[in-house]
Design goal:
Strand content: 15-25%
CATH class: Alpha Beta
Order of helices and strands: EHEHEEHEHHH
Distance between the termini: 11 Å
Number of domains: 1
Length: 164
Amino acid sequence: MSRGTLVAGVGNIFLADDGFGVEVAKRLRAHELPPGVRVEDFGIRGVHLAYELLNGYDRLILIDAVTQGGQPGTIYVMEPDLADLPAGTVTDAHGMDPESVIAMLKSLGGEIGRVLIVGCEPVEVVERIGLSEVVAGALEEASRVVLELINEESAINPQTAKEA
């Protein structure tokens, strides 16, 4: 039985390109999504995200600015190996990376199936509201990539639509 997909935009809108995930989540909310898919802007609320995951989801798609060393504006899809990640406690609720969120989820007794990260290489993460021109230009591609991932899961797991 499928428990659905949570698409979570994360990041700090007061740190320029770090607000990328929040902006993509806003765009995705304008789309009609398959049943069982929820899109939320979690911003810097990593603890809230961990508690939301306790509701039980098969899949988490995190959208965030990620530094991988590529050209600014590059969109990445990554699947971190979180299987051996130990349960943990929160030391900085505003700076929770995906591993910290999953560690907290485990410490609360929860679990998650597949975790994907759709990230964008930032130009700058500095105190400023608003994305750089390059990262703003990648919003459409990132939205398309997330929608493709959602649709792939719907095709693989058609019972999600029947159960929702």
